[in-house]
Amino acid sequence: MRTSNPTLSDHVFEKSRTGNAADGVMTLNGTVLKTAILTLLLVTAGAWSWGQVSAANPPAWFGTALKFGWLVPFALALIIAFVPKTAPMLAPVYAVTKGVIVGVISALFEASFHGIVLTAVLLTCGILFALLAAYATGIIKATENFKLGIFAATMGIAIFYLATWVLSMFGIQIPGLFGNGWVGIAFSGFVVVIAALNLVLDFDFIENGCAAGAPKHMEWYAAFGLLVTLVWLYLEILRLLSKLRSRN
After folding, report:
1. Radius of gyration of the chain measured on its C-alpha atoms
2. 224 and 38 in contact (C-beta within 8 Å)?
C-alpha cells in the first residue's frame, strides 16, 4: 500500500499492527465518525475566526495569525505523523487550530470575491462524494503506477511551495504561476486535480488498513489524514476560483 498523503504512509499501519489490540480494531464506520467530528471542529473554529476577521475592527491577533498561525497546526501534524498514538488527543486540537487559519483565509477571499467560499465548499464536497462513488464502484482504481504518479506529483508540489515560501522571505517572487494569467490558472487547476486524486489514495489506504485490523486509535489518525487532504483541496479550489473571478 502507498499513499501520497504523508500522514497516511505505509509504515504507519505496519507499525500499528504490533500494538495492543485490546481496545478494538479500526473500522470504516469508526473512521467516518471521527472524520465527521474533526470536520465539525474545523468548521466551528473557522466560523468563529471568520466572524472575528469580518468585524468592523479586526482583532489584534489578525496579522500575526495570518503570517505565523499555520505553524501551530503544522507542528501538531508533524507530531501526529511521527507518533500516530497521539492522534486521539492531538487530531481534535489540530482541527481547531487549522480551522482558525482556514476561517481567516476564507474571510479574506470572501471579502474580495463575494460567494466564493460557498462555491469552494460545494465543489470540495462534490469532488469528495464523486470520487468516493467512483472508488466504491471500481471506476477509479488505485493501481501501483497510479499511486506512484500521484506521490511524485504531490511531493513536487510540496517542494515547490516550500521553495517559494523560502524565496519570499528574501523578497523573491516567482511570476506567472501565482497570477491570474492562463499559466497561473493552469497551474492551480493542476494542483486541484492532484489534491483531489489524493482522496482516492486515502480511500484505498483506509480500506486496506481496516482489512488489516489496525488498532482503534488509527481511526483518529486516518480521519486526520483525510482532513489534511480535504483542507488542501478546499484551499486550492479557493485559489483557482479567485484567479478565474479576478479576470472578469
Report:
1. 18
2. yes
The domain tally of the chain equals: 1
Residue pair 95/38 in contact (Cβ under 8 Å)? The answer is: yes
From residue 119, give the alpha-carbon distance in Å to each of 47, 217, 237, 239. 16, 34, 9, 12
Q: Is the pLDDT of residue 108 over 60?
A: yes
Name residues whose C-beta falls within 8 Å of residue 107's C-beta, 6 or more positions apart in sequence. 49, 50, 53, 54
The single-letter code of the amino acid at 67 is K
Nearest-CA neighbor of 4 among 145, 104, 118, 128?
145
In sequence order, what are the residues at sequence separation of 6 or more whose Cβ sits closer than 8 angstroms to the Cβ of residue 127?
A: 196, 199, 233
Q: Cβ(114)–Cβ(244) under 8 Å? A: no
Q: Is 237 helix (H, G, I), strand (E, B) or coil?
A: helix
Report which secondary-structure segment, H or E, holds 73: helix 71-82
pLDDT at position 206 over 70 = yes
At position 128, the amino acid (one-letter code) is L
Structural domain contains residue 69: yes
Q: Is residue 1 part of a domain?
A: no
Which residue, among 81, 75, 111, 93, has the nearest Cα to 16 in the 3D structure? 81
Full domain range(s) for residue 132 = 6-246
Q: Which of 186, 189, 198, 94 is nearest to 155 (CA)?
A: 198
In a domain, 29, yes or no: yes
The runs of H, that is alpha helices, within 169-217 are 182-211
Q: Where does the pLDDT of residue 161 fall: very low under 50, low under 70, confident under 90, or very high at 90 and above? A: confident
